[in-house]
Structure formats: C-alpha cells, structure tokens
C-alpha cells in the first residue's frame, strides 16, 4: 500500500470515529430526518440551499457557524465510507467522491458568507433606522415641549392680562361709584352714614389696590384713596366737634345696626360686608346687623339645590356670574311654592327678583384668603318691585325733617304735561331712529316732554344725543349720566352744549324710571331725539 493510500485510509477511519459527534448538531439531526445517507447530497442541496428555503437543513444560512459547515462535510464523508464498495473502489474514485463533497461545500461556504453579509447589512440598516427614529422622536419631543412652553407662557400672559383688565375694571368701577356718591349723595346724608359709606369705598379701594400691585392703574387709585381718607378724617373731626357730650341709649342702639330695619339696598349690604372683611374689628357689628334682614330688588347669578330647598346666589350686576360658594345667598324652602314659581321664570345670571328674609342663618367671613358667605333664610322671592326704593326706619327718621333739595320740583316734573316744554314741529322726521323696546320708548317719551331743547334745534332732524346711565334694580340713578355721543348737522357748539346740559338735567330729574320694570339694573344706553 502506498503512502497516499495509507493517508486516505487513516482519514476515512478518523471520519468514521467523528460521526457520532456530528450527529449531535442541528444540521446532522435535520439530515437524519430527511433520509440521511440514503438521500444524495446533490438532491438535498439543490432543494435546501435555494432562495425559497428560509432555513436550509434546519438553520438560516446567516446563522450557520464554521462548526456547522464542518459537521455538514463530515456527515457526507461518513456517508461515503459506509458505502459497500468504498473499500473496493480505487483510490482515484474515492478522491473524486470526496472532491464532489468539497465542491458542494465551497458553494455552501459562499452562500453562508453572502447570507452573513446580508444579515449584517440588515442589522446595520435596522440600527441606523432605529437611531434615526430615536433622533426624530427626540426632535418631536423637543418641539412639543417648546410648543407647550410657548402655550404655557402665552396662557400665563393672557391670564396676567386678564387679571390686569379685571383690576382695571374694578378700579374704574369703584372710582365711578365714589364720584357718583360724592356728587349726588354725600351732602344729603347725616355724618354717621357719610363715614360708613366712605369706609366702604376706602375698603374697596384698598382691596383693589392690593390686587393692582405695581400696575399703572394703582397710581390714580391710591391718589383717590388718600383723598378719600383725608375727606373721611375731615368729616370725622367735624362730627366729633359737633357731637354732644352724652349720647342717648336709643342712638347707641341705632349705631349698633339692630334697630335700623331691613337692608333695602344690596350695594350697601355688600359695601358693609367688604368693610367687615378687611377690618376684623367690624365683623361682630356687621354680623349683628344681618338680623335686620333684607328687603330689596336684586339680580340672580345662580340657583343651586340644597338639602331642604334651593340656594339663590344674589348679584348686584346683571350678567355677572358669581363665585361658586361665595357671596350672598337666599335659602328658599321646597314648600314655598310661590317663590319657586317666580324662580322658574328667570334665567340666571340675567334674572331680577325681589327678596325678603328676616335674618342670616349662615355666616362665614375670612381675610386670608378673602372669603365671604352669608345665607339669609327663610327667603321669600317675588317679582321685582317697580316702586321707589324703600328706606329703613333710621333713614326715614333722619330724612323726615326736610325733603332733599329739589325733591318737590322733581316730583312735579315727573308728572306728564300735555305738551313738551320745548315742542318740535308736527310731522318732524328725524334721521336717527334708535332701536328700543316698549319700556325704553316710554322712557324716551317721558324724557322728551321735559327736555328743554334750545329753540334753534327743536326742528333739527339730525340732532341725536346718547347718554350712558347706571341704574339700580329700583330704576334709580346710581351715577351721573355720561354723554357718549352728540351729533347734529345744524347746531353750533354753544347750542349743542345747551342741548346736552338740558338733556342731562332731564335724565336726572325724571328718575326713577319705573316704566323699565325688570329691564332696570346695571348700565344702559339712552338715546334722545327731537322726535321722541
């Protein structure tokens, strides 16, 4: 036997010894299942190693290891050694059989390498795509956060602007109310009521000033606050100078707030509440004064169910929604069918009713945070009264000695005359026809009868004056009329000024405007033309 033949026999013997180990792999197990050595290599290879077979010989090509390739070769070499004619074959034939296996193995190694490269590229592409998605997600998250921050900043800016507008409106309202009080009511009140009303305005201005902070509106508000405090000090000094040394027990009882009769003005009830809320020393006196009860026209901002009936939240401004759980309330019993019938007909926050209650059975007042809750009960609700405002017992006693200046003249003026004091030509057609309801037309008709239009303008069809007036729910003026617009194609400045002053005087003299009925309350526009 030649040396080469001995080497080939030795190799064949070693392969035979390795056969049991080769069969332990995934590849050899698969080959055993499909027929083992009975199925020729060429037949299984062409079927298994193809684009249509995802796992050749039980395993994806990209997952084949070098050991898997070695097991594959060893398996088929062992198959050759088990051939019956293997030993009788010539040496050249045995080498040819092994060469066929190695040729197939070379193709297998190429395909395994190609599959590994493809898998590596796919992994790289997937990693790149994952990184791209991560960067995109981070960018979107950053953009979303930036958008949220911009929205939050815009919301904060809007809230701050809304707060400033609200404070500006409060400041304008308190200054307007103070001006109307000092011009129209201050001189008509006794010193005690002057001080109480001024205390209410001072408390309101202090509260609005705290809300205003360093806003531009704070400067005129604080200036007016200093002037109001100085005015109050002046009135207090004059009262102390004129006050007798001894006070009667009846006067002391009147000052305590228990003998003044029911509150007949919602605004006055609220002003005293603000004073007591900002000054704890006044709370007990204010709490005791609530035993006087209430009896006035007022707006309804909300109606809420309670354990035994309904809570009606009161409001001094039509259309103003109250703060939930805070403010002044009336408790109406479920058994009060008449009150409930009136409440069913209104639409908060635009409804107006007349409320009457003997006392407050719930009282809560705190300074920090500011909170007030007063519930009157039992409360009787009726339709709003269109009559003149009722006065308390103390007010009637203080004002009974002499009527207000000009009261007799105003009463006489409100009586309709047969003809206007300054009539316009019959058939005059005015160029402006303001839209009005029946109540407003009746009001304009009454004002036209007492409006002393200058003679040169009585036939002017283009004359139109527009005033802004503020009324309480008893149809009384709570502030001087403010001119909004004046137009005429014929009037000189002097004639227009005379027409405006005459109209303003007529509006002030003719109040209250009972023909407005439930339309009274809040701010309204009054248009005057010669054709009214």
UniProtKB/TrEMBL annotation:
**Compositional bias per record (Basic and acidic residues), positions renumbered to this chain:** 126-143, 409-419
Compositionally biased region (Low complexity) = 144-160
**What name does the UniProt record give this protein?**
Uncharacterized protein
Keyword Signal assigned: yes
Task: List the keywords (alphabetical).
Answer: Signal
* Range of residues in the leader sequence: 1-24
Q: Which organism is it from?
A: Methylobacterium terricola
Q: Where is this region: Disordered?
A: 126-167, 383-435
């Amino acid at each position: 036997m030649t040396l080469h033949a001995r080497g080939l026999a030795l190799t064949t013997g070693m392969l035979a010894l390795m056969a049991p180990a080769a069969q332990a792999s995934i590849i050899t197990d698969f080959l055993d299942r499909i027929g083992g050595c009975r199925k020729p290599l060429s037949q299984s290879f062409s079927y298994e190693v193809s684009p249509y077979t995802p796992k050749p010989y039980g395993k994806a090509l990209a997952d084949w290891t070098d050991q898997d390739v070695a097991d594959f070769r060893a398996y088929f070499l062992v198959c050759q050694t088990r051939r019956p004619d293997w030993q009788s074959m010539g040496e050249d034939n045995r080498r040819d059989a092994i060469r066929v296996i190695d040729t197939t193995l070379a193709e297998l190694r190429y395909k395994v390498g190609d599959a590994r490269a493809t898998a590596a590229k796919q992994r790289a592409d997937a990693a790149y795509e994952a990184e791209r998605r991560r960067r995109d997600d981070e960018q979107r998250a950053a953009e979303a956060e930036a958008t949220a921050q911009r929205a939050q900043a815009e919301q904060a800016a809007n809230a701050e602007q809304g707060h400033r507008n609200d404070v500006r409106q409060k400041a304008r309202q308190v200054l307007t109310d103070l001006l109307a009080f000092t011009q129209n009511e201050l001189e008509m009140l006794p010193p005690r009521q002057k001080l109480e009303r001024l205390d209410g305005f001072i408390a309101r201005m202090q509260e609005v000033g705290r809300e205003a902070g360093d806003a531009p509106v704070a400067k005129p508000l604080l200036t007016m606050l200093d002037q109001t405090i100085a005015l109050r000090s002046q009135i207090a000094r004059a009262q102390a100078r004129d006050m007798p040394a001894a006070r009667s027990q009846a006067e002391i009882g009147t000052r305590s707030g228990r003998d003044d009769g029911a509150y007949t003005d919602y605004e006055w009830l609220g002003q005293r509440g603000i004073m007591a809320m900002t000054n704890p020393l006044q709370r007990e006196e204010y709490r005791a004064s609530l035993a006087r009860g209430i009896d006035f026209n007022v707006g309804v901002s909300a109606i809420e169910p309670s354990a035994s009936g309904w809570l009606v939240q009161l409001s001094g401004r039509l259309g103003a929604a109250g703060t939930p759980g805070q403010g002044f309330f009336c408790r109406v019993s479920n058994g009060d069918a008449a009150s409930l019938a009136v409440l069913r007909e209104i639409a908060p926050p635009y409804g107006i009713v007349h409320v009457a209650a003997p006392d407050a059975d719930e009282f809560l007042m705190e300074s920090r945070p500011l909170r007030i809750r007063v519930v009157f009960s039992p409360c009787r609700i009726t339709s709003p009264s269109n009559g003149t405002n009722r006065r308390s017992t103390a007010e009637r006693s203080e004002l009974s000695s002499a009527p207000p200046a000009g009261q007799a003249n105003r009463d006489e003026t409100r009586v309709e005359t047969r003809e206007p004091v300054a009539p316009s030509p019959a058939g005059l057609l005015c160029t402006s026809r303001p839209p009005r309801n029946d109540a407003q037309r009746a009001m304009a008709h009454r004002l036209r009868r007492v409006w002393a239009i200058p003679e040169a303008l009585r036939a002017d069809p283009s004359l139109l004056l527009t005033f802004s007036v503020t009324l309480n729910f008893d149809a009384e003026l709570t502030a001087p009329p403010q001119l909004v617009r004046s137009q005429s194609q014929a009037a000189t400045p002097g004639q227009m000024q005379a027409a405006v002053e005459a109209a303003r005087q007529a509006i002030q003299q003719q109040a209250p405007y009972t023909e407005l009925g439930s339309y009274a309350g809040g701010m309204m526009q009054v248009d005057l033309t010669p054709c009214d």
